[in-house]
Amino acid sequence: MELARISGHSQMTHEDWLLAKRELHGNTSDTADNGGLDAMVTGVSERDMVATDLGHHVENLTPEDDTLLAEELTAEGMEEAVHDRMLAACDEEAREREED
């Protein structure tokens, strides 16, 4: 829905759904073309959202790994900040239209 708002749509479109899927899962084959939007939505159950693994121990990171991880987290944070600013701008434009 956020991508639809950023695009200026009042309702989510199929293209918005595909863009969101690509952002979350990468550019994989579009299962939406095979089963449609409804099949994708109904294909997710509550069980899919529950963590089934309590985790496991991983080896300590080297300083090089720490640097790469920090760079990746920084890039993700920057992308999220841009997304948040775009949503805020859409909300502000909607408020301005309501005032007029």
Secondary structure category: mainly alpha
SS strand fraction: under 5%
Percent helix range: 55-70%
Element pattern in H and E: HHHH
**Can you summarize the main beta sheet?**
none
Low-confidence stretches: none
Radius of gyration: 19 Å
Number of strands: 0
Shape verdict: flat
Keywords:
4 helices, flat, mainly alpha, 100 residues
SSE map:
Layout: H1 2-7, H2 14-25, H3 31-42, H4 63-99
Could you walk me through the main structural features you see in this protein, from its secondary elements to its overall organization?
It is a single chain. The protein has four helices and no strands. With 100 residues, it is mainly alpha-helical. It has two domains: 39 residues, no CATH class; 39 residues. The longest helix has 37 residues. The radius of gyration is 19 Å and the shape is flat. The two termini are 25 Å apart.
Brief rundown of the structure:
This protein is mainly α and 100 residues long.
